[in-house]
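Minutes, project huddle
Topic: does the predicted pose make sense with alpha-L-arabinofuranose bound?
PN asked that the exact inputs be recorded in the minutes so nobody has to dig through chat later. Recorded below.
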Amino acid sequence: MIKRRDFLRTTAAASGLAFARRFSSLASAQTSSGATIEVLMNEPLGVISPEIYGHFVENLSGVVYDGVWVGEDSKVPNIKGIRKRLVDEMRKIKPAIVRFPGGCFADSYDWRDGVGPVEKRPRRTNFWFGGEKPGAMEAHRYDPNRFGTNEFVEFCRLIGGQPYLAANLRSLPAEQFYRWVEYCNSPAGSTTLADERAEAGFKEPFNVRYWGVGNESWGCGGNFTAQEYAVEYRRFTAWVPGYQGPLSFIASGPNDDTWSWTRGFLEEITRKGKGEIRDIFGLALHYYAWNLSRGKTHDWVQGKGDAVNFDATDWYELLQQGDVMESLITGHWQVMGEFDPEHHIKLVVDEWGPWYKDGSALTLTDQLEQLPTLRDAVFSGMTLDTFNRHPDKVSIGCCAQLINCLNSLYLAHEEKFCVTPVGHVFGMYAAHQGGRSLRTEFLAPEISYDRDGKPASFWGLKGAASLHDKMLVLTAVNPDTAKPMQTEINVRGASVKSGTAIVLSAPDIHARNTFEQPDTLVPRSATVTVRGGDVRFDFPPASVVKLELELV
Ligand code: AHR
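Predicted holo structure (tokens), as shared on screen:
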């Protein structure tokens, strides 16, 4: 077994060597101020799963009540109680999948509370009770269960995404898991629960394919050891009927570089035989970038930074934190390969984003709400490109969380609504869905910055490319807060006929959208120079860029 430190040293050395061999000629071509992007048409990496462009809706403070659900009688325009503007915006970004109802909330949730006649649904204390400020909606503390399974599935249908339900493993018996599956998926007229579903207006089954089996089971989801959780996982997933087809179960994974969770879980799972692997579709990985203390502390509260008040060093520190995602993907993948060499199990990164300290929310009573800026747009573009570069490994991704929460795409309160810079990134990057990811090398001078009197650096330009027939989609971020990156783009194995560019950037790195000024930061078109089949483009400072290049 490879220890973590040895593993990092070995992989870094190996990939460094391969890179040096392939690009020794390029290095000499690179100028000190410019960059080169090499798209390698003959090196496909796999198909980009549309589901990596997924979302997360937890019953947490303003996410559901006020965010998604406003109620049929609301003065806020709605479709069957669901906020209409949200539906309209989401349709534009092709949301492939949505995870619900948590998060930590999932392991306190009884799905039965949220189905059946509305007037009979019980009120329950929400898992997140206690975090709201005075004046918060009552529904945030005491869950009226008005938005349950039926309403969630309706929401998914309206926006055109698949439901991904997270089951309660901590506080409900396994029986309730397969009953929930039965309620959702048993054919019309087949079971009492199918009849109950029909009475609610849903005769045909929901056909929910993706099921999370607990959430963060090492913590809020039961405080298990990896081995204890594996035993529970086997018990919960044994003999759950699939009805229309096999279900895709997603096991609770780590939230950082705790390789021992991944190893301990798979070791225990396979103790009963290698075949047990077949009952796992994915291993959930959560990762939040939160520690902006510049190495001063590891304290979860003290280490957090401010969402809107930051300097250039904080900007780079957040991106450094986010960049860790790639090593988590490759690291956990390597450990998974010890037990599953054919890699039947995929990674499901179903919670990701920056997590700042309290205080930037547009709706002050919303718990965990923060105000995304251009920094979060660059962070999000960078993360989605990381997923794009690993289509063989990452099968689902869910940004945490959709609305009125952490790295939200949208903010809303009563009739007020805005699309955040993160929402615009999802709009730009939707073009990657279903494309063939191509190995793409970015050669750019590093950025140097001052980290409390010590020199620090960050890469100069990075992204991903995917092919869709004759259309090449190339996305990248220029993390430099001040300098543009003049770039030559070479498509090896094809010639470029024409190109268009969409840029999300602003002179102020703190740029953001609010209810009063919703269009401060919106994507704009830019000119791409195509000459003799090659492409030149200047990536503005602090930018997220999408190029669409038509190939001959
Ligand atoms: O997204 C907020 C919380 O973060 C989720 O409920 C939990 O899974 C994670 O710790």
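Observations noted during the meeting:
- Confidence is low (pLDDT under 50) at residues 1-31.
- The first strand starts at residue 34 and ends at 47.
No decisions taken; revisit at the next huddle.
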